[in-house]
Amino acid sequence: MNIQLITDFFMWCTLINGGLLILWTLFILFAPELGYKTQSRWIAISRANFDQLIYLFLGIFKLFFIFFNLIPFLALLIIG
């Protein structure tokens, strides 16, 4: 494996996961009721707990995105 192949891999991972992060954030910003109604059919959860969980999961996903996609991609760009 060469550095260019690994850099391309991390570039696509960064683009796909960044797109998912943006999509999820926009969905929560512009259609929070739809998300809550959909999930509350399956799981009995209050609106306040749902908001806290979504905020927590969004934050965890953002941290994983930064640490495992964006930082390795930028490091490989600097190296190669």
3D structure, described in words:
By secondary structure, this protein is mainly α. It has one domain. Helix content is 90%, strand content 0%. It has 3 helices and no strands. The radius of gyration is 17 Å and the shape is elongated. The model has no long low-confidence stretch (mean pLDDT 96).
Brief characterization of the structure:
This protein is mostly helical and 80 residues long. 90% of the residues lie in helices and 0% in strands.
Give the topology, please:
Blueprint: H1 3-30, H2 32-42, H3 47-79
Helix pairs in contact: 1-3
The major sheet is characterized as: none
Spans where pLDDT lies below 50 across 5 or more residues: none
Beta-strand share of residues: under 5%
Q: Which structural class do the helices and strands define?
A: mainly alpha
Radius of gyration: 17 Å
Cα separation of the termini = 14 Å
Shape: elongated
How many distinct beta strands? Answer: 0
Helical region count?
A: 3
The SSE string, one letter per element, is: HHH
| Overall pLDDT score | 96
Helix content: over 70%
Number of domains: 1
Features:
single chain; 80 residues; mainly alpha; 90% helix; 0% strand; transmembrane helix; DUF6868 domain-containing protein; membrane; transmembrane; DUF6868
